[in-house]
Amino acid sequence: MELNRTLQQYINGKWIDANSKNTRDIINPFNQEVIATVPESDDTDAKNAIDAAREAFDYGDWATIPALERGKIVRKIADYIERDREELAKLESLDTGKTMEESRGDMDDIAGVFHYYAELADKNGGEMIESPIANSVSKVVHEPVGVCGQITPWNYPLLQASWKLAPALVTGNTLVMKPSEITPLTTVKVFELIEEAGVPAGVANLVLGPGSSVGAELSSNVDVDLISFTGGIETGKKIMQSASVNMKNLALELGGKNPNVIFVDADFEVAVDQALNGVFFHAGQICSAGTRLIVEESIHDELVSALVDRVEKFKLGNGFDEETQMGPLISAEHLEKVEKYVETGIREGATLAVGGKRPEDPELQNGFFYLPTIFTDCSTEMSIVQEEAFGPIITVEKFNSEEEAVKLANDSIYGLAGGVFTKDIVKAERCAAKMRMGTVWINEFNLYFPHAPWGGYKQSGIGRELGKLGIEEYTETKHIMQNLKPEPLNWF
Ligand SMILES: NC(=O)c1ccc[n+]([C@@H]2O[C@H](COP(=O)([O-])OP(=O)(O)OC[C@H]3O[C@@H](n4cnc5c(N)ncnc54)[C@H](O)[C@@H]3O)[C@@H](O)[C@H]2O)c1
Ligand SMILES: C[N+](C)(C)CC=O
User: Where is each Aldehyde dehydrogenase domain found (predicted)?
Assistant: First the structure.
C-alpha cells in the first residue's frame, strides 16, 4: 500500500467509497502531516456491510467448509503479515506515533495470533456425552455465532483487530470490522491481505467511520449476532445497552487502572526497569499500563529517585528515529485530556516528582508530546489514582503490609491487570490469588501472548480474547440428542 493515497472500505468483496462520498484525513501525531485520506462512512455503509455479512453467513459456504480449510486461509493471512511486516510496522508507526521497534513487535505478535488460531481451527470438534437416557446418543458441537460486529480502538489498532479477526474467521463466522476512525491504516492493509488469502466476498467486511454512526449501527442492528468491542468503559456501556436490542452475544475489552505492587524484597533493578516499561511504552496509552505503583514504604524514596533519574533521560521523538524511546500522544484532544489529569492531580494534593508538562524541545512542537510524569504522595481517593488518564503518568502510593498492598491494589472499579514484584514466590502467589484482575504478572509487567486468555474483571470488561477462550467467544454450543429407539410415550 502506498502512502499519501485515498483509501477505501471493503464491503462484499469490493473496495468502495462512503455512500456520502465524505472523507477524513488521517494525521501523523508526530508532526500533524496528512498521511492518508479515508472514507468517512455512516450508518448506511454499515447497514450495507451487515447485509453482506448476513447474506454470506446465511447462504454462503464459509461456515460449512471444513474447519481445516478455513485454518489454511487464516495461515496464509499470517504468512502475508510476516511478508509485509516492515510495511505494516511503518503504517502503524505513522498512524499512532509509536516507535518502529514497538510496531515491529506488534506485527510479530499479530502474525503469531493468526498462526495460533489457524492451528486451532480444526481442534474444536465438540464431544460425545455419556447419555443418562437409554438408547440415545448425545453430542455437543460448536457452531459459529453468525454475523459479528467488531469495533477496535486507536492505541493498538491492528493488534486488537487480530484478536478478533483470527478467531472469528477460523470458527466460520462472518464479520464487519470498524477500526478507530483516527487509526485505520493497518486494518485497511490487512483486509487487502484477507482478500489476497482468498476469504470469500461478504465474509469479512471493513467499514471506516465514527463510532457515533457506524459503531452505533453495528451494536444496534438486529442482523448482528455478536458484538466484540475494545475501547473505553463509557463507550462499552453504550454498546452493552444497544446490544440488548436483540440480545447479542457480547465481548467487551475495556480500560484499566492497573496496580504494580513492589515489595522491599524485589530485585530492585528489575522492579525499576519493569515499572518504567509497564507504563511508558506507547506513551502510557496501553489498557494494561501499570499506572499505579504501590510501593513498600521502606524502599519508596530510593525507588522514586531511581525512576525519576531514568525518566529524565528518556528520549522523546519521531517513532522512525532509532534513538526514540517514547513517541507522541495520539491527538491534540487526547493531549489536553492528559494535561487536565495532571492539573487535577496537583489540585488534589499529589506531588509532582518529574514531568507534568509538554516538552520544550523545538523539534517536538508540531507533535502531541507530553513529558513522562511521576506523582508521589498519592492516595486512592484521588481521581488520578482511580481514573484512566491513558498517558505517560505514574502515581505512587505507599504500603506497610502485604494485606494493605492487596487492599490498595483492589481498590478500583477496574480489574484488567496488575503486577507483583518480590523474590518471595509464596508471597507473590498469595497476592496474585487475592488480586481481582484478569491478568497478574509476577516479576514481569505487560506481557501477553496468543496462548493465554486476556480480559478484565469488574468494569474492565466481559469475556476473554486470546487463548482457547478466544475461540469460545465466537462459537455457540449446541447439544444434539438422538433417540435410537423412538416409541410413543402414551402420556396424553
Ligand atoms: N482491554 C483491552 O484489551 C483494551 C485494549 C486496548 C484499548 N483498550 C481501551 O480503549 C480505550 C482507548 O481507546 P479509544 O479512545 O479508541 O476508545 P473509545 O471507546 O473512544 O473508542 C473505541 C472504538 O469505539 C468506537 N465508538 C465510539 N463511540 C461508539 C458508540 N457510541 N458505539 C459504537 N462504537 C463507538 C470508536 O469509534 C472506536 O472505534 C482505553 O480505555 C483503553 O484502556 C482496552
Ligand atoms: C491489550 N494490549 C496490552 C495489547 C493493549 C492494551 O491497550
Answer: 15-480
390 lines ligand 1 (CB under 6 A): yes
> Could you say which architecture CATH assigns to the domain 259-442?
3-Layer(aba) Sandwich (3.40)
User: pTM higher than 0.95, yes or no?
Assistant: yes
pLDDT in tens, 323-357: 999 999 999 999 999 999 999 999 999 999 999 99
Is the distance from the beta carbon of residue 445 to the nearest atom of ligand 2 less than 6 Å?
A: no
Q: Classify residue 236 as exposed, middle or buried by CB count within 10 Å of its CB (0-12, 13-18, 19+).
A: buried
Structure confidence by residue, pLDDT tens digits, 55-108: 999 999 999 999 999 999 999 999 999 999 999 999 999 999 999 999 999 999
Residues taking part in catalysis: 253
Where are the CATH 3.40.605.10 domain residues in the chain?
Answer: 5-254+460-479
In which residue ranges of the chain is CATH 3.40.309.10 found? Answer: 259-442
Q: What ipTM does the predicted assembly reach?
A: 0.98
Q: Say which residue the cell 468494569 belongs to.
A: 459
212 Cα–ligand 2 center, Å: 23
For 412-460, the DSSP string reads SSEESEEEEE-S-HHHHHHHHHH--SSEEEES--S---TTS-B--EETT
Q: What kind and span of H or E run contains 54?
A: helix 43-59
Please tell me the CATH superfamily of domain 5-254+460-479, with its number.
Answer: Aldehyde Dehydrogenase; Chain A, domain 1 (3.40.605.10)
